[in-house]
């Protein structure tokens, strides 16, 4: 089962970064590839079991379900229910940890999934570079603005 892992140090305190990132539907406000996003069935975006339905600019729609959420650990885990990507069994976790020196935090974002071997290089680019790494860069930038 492939695993994609991306980490970043963000120059802001974990509480400030989490205040933005904790909203499971808030990625539409800071992530550069998200065209639009809604939480289905009127649930709150921090409710385990809620489903976000969102569009990716030029790449279709996804539905993802929140499977765990922790303000204490500054983390959440979600799974893909529907996607145009050639993968199955996708489970991802987003987590922030305070950096003990300075007002910074350490971000981690990883996913495990199944796919055909020939699809893995493209998925590493799409998920690792274009989603996780680009997301961390945009999140950090949104906190500077």
Automatic annotation (TrEMBL):
UniProt feature coiled coil, ranges: none
Organism superkingdom: Bacteria
Pfam families in the cross-refs: Polyketide_cyc2 (PF10604)
InterPro entries according to UniProt: Polyketide_cyclase/dehydratase, START-like_dom_sf
Name assigned to this protein: SRPBCC family protein
């Amino acid at each position: 089962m492939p695993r994609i892992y991306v980490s970043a140090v963000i120059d802001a305190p974990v509480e400030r970064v989490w205040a933005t990132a904790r909203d499971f539907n808030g990625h539409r406000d800071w992530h550069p590839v998200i065209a639009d996003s809604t939480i289905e069935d009127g649930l709150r975006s921090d409710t385990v079991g809620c489903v976000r339905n969102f569009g990716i600019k030029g790449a279709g729609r996804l539905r993802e379900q929140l499977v765990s959420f922790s303000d204490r650990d500054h983390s959440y885990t979600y799974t893909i229910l529907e996607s145009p990507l050639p993968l199955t069994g996708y489970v991802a976790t987003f987590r922030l940890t305070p950096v003990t020196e300075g007002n910074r935090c350490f971000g981690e974002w990883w996913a495990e999934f199944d796919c055909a071997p020939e699809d893995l290089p493209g998925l590493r680019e799409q998920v690792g570079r274009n989603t996780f790494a680009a997301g961390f860069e945009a999140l950090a930038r949104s906190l500077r603005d």
